[in-house]
Amino acid sequence: MDALVRAGEPMPTADDMAPRILPVMWDRLPSILMPDGTAGLRWIRNPGAYTVVMSVEDRGDAGVWWHVSLGHPAMLPNWEAVVEVKETFMGSETTAMHMVPPRSAWINANPNVLHLWVRLDAETYPEGLYAP
């Protein structure tokens, strides 16, 4: 995927990145304020109780990132749920990553939430990196 944000262009918002049409099991919830002051869009999956939060975050020198988190009140989301959320909210042909930072950098507000990231202002996935 090429960079979606070019130098000098305005940064997209979560509203710009959000899917316009969702399967009927996803209901929109009120937005929340993210730590950087931008709006975090939220949805809940019924049935399933999974919640999704989407934001676009400008991390300065670290880049502009599209963020989607997936959480459940009682368990860590499984692989099938992560893939469903990634494809529903980020697209089936978008490469997203789940990062595991050094333990000293962990910020764990909820142990049942996983995060997906796409860098919007630079290519971050070397060609040929994928396993066969």
Give descriptors for this structure.
mainly beta, 5-stranded antiparallel beta sheet, 29% strand, 132 residues, 2 helices
Report a brief summary of the structure.
The chain has 132 residues and is mainly beta.
What does this 3D model show about the protein?
The protein is mainly beta. It has one domain (14-119). It contains 2 helices and 5 strands. It has helices spanning 14-17, 79-89, and strands at residues 26-33, 39-45, 51-58, 64-71, 113-119. Strands 1-2-3-4-5 form a 5-stranded antiparallel beta sheet. β3 (51-58) and β4 form a beta hairpin. It is globular and about 40 Å long.
Strand order of the largest sheet: 1-2-3-4-5
Share of residues in helices: 10-25%
> Number of helical runs?
2
Report how far apart the termini are. 19 Å
Count the strands? 5
Q: Into which percentage range does the β-strand content fall?
A: 25-35%
Largest sheet: 5 strands, antiparallel
Element order, helices and strands? HEEEEHE
Write the layout of secondary structure elements.
Elements: H1 14-17, E1 26-33, E2 39-45, E3 51-58, E4 64-71, H2 79-89, E5 113-119
Antiparallel strand pairs: 1-2, 2-3, 3-4, 4-5
